[in-house]
Amino acid sequence: MKKILIIEDDKIVMASARDLLEAEGYEVFTAENGRRGIELARQIIPDLIICDVMMPEIDGHGVLMALREFPETNAVPFIFLTAKADKSDIRQGMKLGADDYLTKPYTRMDLLDAISSRLAKQNALNQRFNNQIQQVEARLNYALYYDSVTGLPNRLVFRDQFLKALPVKPPPDWIIAVVYLSLDRYNQISNSLGSNYATLLLKAVAARLKETLGDNASISRLQADEFALVLSGSSASLNIAQICQTVLEKLALPYNLDQLEVYTTASMGIGCNPESGSEPEKLLDNARISMLHTRQLGGNNFEFYKPEKFTPSMEQVKLESSLRHALERNELEIYYQPQVSIRHGNIVGAEALLRWIHPEKGFISPVTFIPLAEETGLIHEIGDWVLKMACSKVKSWQKAGLPPLRIAVNVSSHQIYHPNFLTKVSRIVQESGLPLENLELELTESALLHEIDTANSVLTQLRSVGVQVAIDDFGTGFSSLSYLKQFPFDTLKIDRLFVQNIGQDPESSAITLATIQMAHSLNLKVIAEGVETESELGFLRDHGCEEIQGYYFSHPLPAVEFEKLLASNKRLEDLSIVVKSSRVNG
């Protein structure tokens, strides 16, 4: 049943229209003024809105302008009712996005024809949109799960490959081996011959791996020159060492790349289930450790992972000890990167980014110390500290009279599955004085996959108290429309990988556009990360992305510098003026 919202302050006109439409089988909702009409439209998301132009407080034009601001209502067909037939009045409504006008008094057929015409047109648009979404989603999923250079499945498919190699009831002697393979001279070849030859080499290696292994192994490309192989079988039939030796011999044969003969070898590490672990990611990590050891010994060989052989290095032990004292020694600092409204140009939020300035080593990348914090359990103490400091800082800016902000804080999977996580978040934020509505927690897709039901419950409870939830780095995990529907997100953040060169690279443009459309179909706000150029901003603006963050507007800044940025009231349009001015002067 189609839902129709009537916004009309004349009770007689409203009742007449409501009775007529209910008799035709429509589900009718009514609002007696513009303010109530806006609230009701956002609650019920009607299929069509009929609105009087002349109303006290907020007139019909104000209602339309307000509803076009929200993703969930910006495409709802809108018909104006007016007692005037003034062309300028009609022209103003059409400019705002009205779909039709009916002049009072109207006949029964006038009203029904206008509604059926708008709904039919909307149905056609929705069908076309759904078809486009399905087509682009298929392309998006392929781009997400398959490597564009080699055509092999990528790291996201690795876990599925592993699980498929494990029978429902495996025999007692069943073995699964994960082989981590890296080319020995790839960087040298890439640096000396250029990226084109490096790409040709990767394609040739992938083809040779498929030819050598056939159906006996699953192959995926992990990154750069690194591949994962999944071998499985009974201990009596699966000779892992022989397979790896054959692969090494085949890869060592010369490659003819565009009439240039090139040679490379490979280093391989092997993790076997159950000796080296039972989880695929753990096996892969252990296989990589043994691959690195093989490479240190000269490469062109393979080695099985043995726990007693690969103990943590002294350097790793020292780094862990330093991290344990980093908080008390004030070595950790939070930087803030602005999140900017594309429509209005102003700073509306900031992402809190943790930095570690080691007294001897200097800046240590979060890529290095965050996994270490998770492994050692320090992530809980550090995560609590980041949340406390970020919320307190934003509250202090509010007290100083600076514009209100939403603060986004990254959360680890180790944190959200902790039994006291919800209690700690509520307590820390309330102690800071910051309203819960000003907090947004960002989670990566992989953080939610361990215990989906638990994660869903936690996110639902967070939203129930006003905390917003964002899915971070969308496109680098197990991204799909069905996946997004499982969790109560407010915001989707497009990873910088899909923002680079949009508007110029057709594949990146199609993926980014599809992601924005999918997010809006689920009533999610979209933030694009890593925006660095005016052309990237232009593409995102043209296709309805709500917010950006990236070097185009600002690098991440220490708290003092970010406060100055807020006080300066810097806006997106200021950057456009500078860019255009430099072009003219140039």
Under the CATH scheme, the architecture of the largest domain is Alpha-Beta Barrel
Supply the helix-strand structural class. Answer: alpha/beta
Find the CATH superfamily of the largest domain. EAL domain
Please report the total strand number as a whole number: 22
Q: Largest beta sheet: what is the strand line-up?
A: 13-14-16-17-18-19-20-21
Q: How confident overall, as mean pLDDT?
A: 86
| Quaternary | single chain
Q: Cα distance, first to last residue?
A: 60 Å
**Measured on Cα atoms, how large is the radius of gyration?**
29 Å
**Helical element count?**
21
Low-confidence stretches: 578-586
Shape: globular
Helix proportion: 40-55%
Q: Could you name the key traits of this structure?
A:
586 residues; alpha/beta; Rossmann fold; Alpha-Beta Plaits; TIM Barrel; 3 domains; eight-stranded mixed beta barrel; globular; disordered C terminus
Please specify the SSE layout and strand pairing.
Elements: E1 3-7, H1 11-23, E2 27-31, H2 34-44, E3 48-52, H3 60-67, E4 78-82, H4 87-96, E5 100-103, H5 108-145, H6 155-164, E6 174-183, H7 186-193, H8 195-213, E7 217-223, E8 226-234, H9 240-251, E9 255-257, E10 260-262, E11 266-273, H10 280-296, E12 301-304, H11 314-326, E13 332-341, E14 347-358, E15 362-364, H12 366-376, H13 379-399, E16 406-410, H14 413-416, H15 421-432, E17 439-444, H16 452-464, E18 468-474, H17 481-485, E19 491-494, H18 506-521, E20 525-528, H19 534-542, E21 547-548, E22 557-558, H20 559-568, H21 572-585
Can you walk through the features of this model?
This protein is of the alpha/beta class. The protein folds into 3 domains: about 5-130, Rossmann fold; about 155-305, Reverse transcriptase/Diguanylate cyclase domain (Alpha-Beta Plaits, 2-Layer Sandwich), CATH 3.30.70.270; about 330-580, EAL domain (TIM Barrel). Helix content is about 45%, strand content about 20%. The strands form 4 sheets. It has an 8-stranded mixed beta barrel, surrounded by 4 helices. A hairpin with a 3-residue loop joins strand 14 and strand 15. Helix 5 (about 110-145) crosses helix 18. The longest helix is centred in the N-terminal third of the chain and has 38 residues, at about 110-145. It is globular and about 90 Å long.
